[in-house]
Every structure is written in structure tokens, then in C-alpha cells.
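Progress report, Aim 2. The chain analyzed during this reporting quarter is listed below.
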Amino acid sequence: MTAIPLYHIDAFTHRLFRGNPAAVCPLATPLPPSLCQAIAQENQLSETAFFWPDGTGGYHIRWFTPTQEVDLCGHATLAAAYVVGRFVAPGCTEVRFRSRQECLTVRKQGELWELDLPRWPLNPAAPPPDLIAGLGCSPQEVWRTPRDLLAVLHDPQQVHTLQPDYTRLARLDSFGVIVTAPGQSVDFVSRFFAPRAGIPEDPVTGSAHCALVPYWSQRLGKTELHAQQLSPRGGELWGTLTADRVLLRGHAVCYLTGQIHLQEAPP
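Predicted C-alpha cells for the chain:
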């Protein structure tokens, strides 16, 4: 029987039972994608991250939702760096991950971990009927990112009280829907819905801030931003916009450590 380490990490929070839970599996060598998908489905968290040494001091990384592999996940990358710094290589303060698309660096900044993420371009878009019906309101603005639709609402209360129709949102031609508004105690708030990917609502979505930080930086005229995600679990993030990158910072806490036990002939 093969045993795989499993860490359950709450990301973008300094309190247990808040933020976005991610499963993290450090490996010696990669697993077949079908097995990774089966583990992610069994975990039933928004993301499960798998990483293994790349031979240069860094790690390869892949992320799976309960239903599919994705090209980028912020909170599970933060969680994976936390696992490296606390359990795999205790005291490590900089972790390099190589995904299928690019290299991501995560650095320890005091009590926070800082993700170096791509800056996503934004293109204005007409609101699709399923977006309006799915949100139950008409956004002020709609933008298309390389992956998602970004809907801008009037105030944080609108974002907080949304009760989306996931069936309608799942019909949209996008991975997910980012909903955002100006904040009160923070610069902006958001929520994220991705029913097509098996994630009705993601508690805190680091990758969405590849678009949110550039949008609010331009709108507010500042490059240092403080954000909250208003899911039921809630989360807190700090972002810095550079010429072509988004630096995103957050806390992480460990909820659970354990092992996955596989039969000798896994499916």
C-alpha cells in the first residue's frame, strides 16, 4: 500500500475555519493525472495541489478541482508554499513552483506569504443574459479576463447578499464569474463563482486578483490595495500592482495533516 502525505491548509486567513481550504500533497515523483483527479474529487475542496521536486531546487505543481485540472490557482499555491516552509523544508522563505504554463515564486514576508502572479488584461464586454439572470441584477460594468467574467456592482452589500442561480452561471462561456464592488473598511470586496468547474462558490480566490488588482488599481489610482472576499468563510488579501505582475499576500494556517492510502493498483 502506498501512502501520500496530505495537508489541509486554510489560505488567506490567520484563523482556522476561515479563508479557503486547500488540500496539498507533496510527492517524490508525479502521479498520473487521472489519479490526481480522483484524489481531488474525493477531497471535495475547491482545489487540491500536487507538487514534486523539479531537480533545480524548486517544484513542479498541478492543481485540480473536484471535476477538472486548472492552469492557475492562487490559494492552493500559497498553501503549498506554506507546506514547504513549515513541513518539507522548514525555514524555507522562498519557493519556486513550475506549472504547465509558467514559473511562480512565493516568498515569506513576515507573517504573510507573497505570491508573484501574472497581471491579467481586461476587455470590456456586454453582459450576457445568463450573467444577469444568474446574478439576479445588472452589473455597472462587465469585463472579460483571459479566464473569467468580471462583474462590477455598486456597493459591498450587493456583493454580500447575492444569491446566484448556479445553473444559469454554468451556461456562461467562462471558467468563473468574479463579482466585485468598492469596499468600506477595505479598498474592494469580491466573490467568485465557478459552477462549471465544480465550485459553486470559491471561498477566497487568489487567481481572480490577477484581474481585480489591476482593475481597482486603475479605478482608485493606487498600486497598494487591501481586499476582502465576502464568501461565508471570508478571507483577507493585500495586493501590489507592478508593470506586468500582481504581488498578492495572505496568511495561512494548518488544519490537518494525514496520509492518503492507496492500493497497490490504484484506479
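The longest helix spans residues 74-88. Residues 9 and 63 are 14 Å apart (CA to CA). These observations will guide the mutagenesis work planned for the next reporting period.
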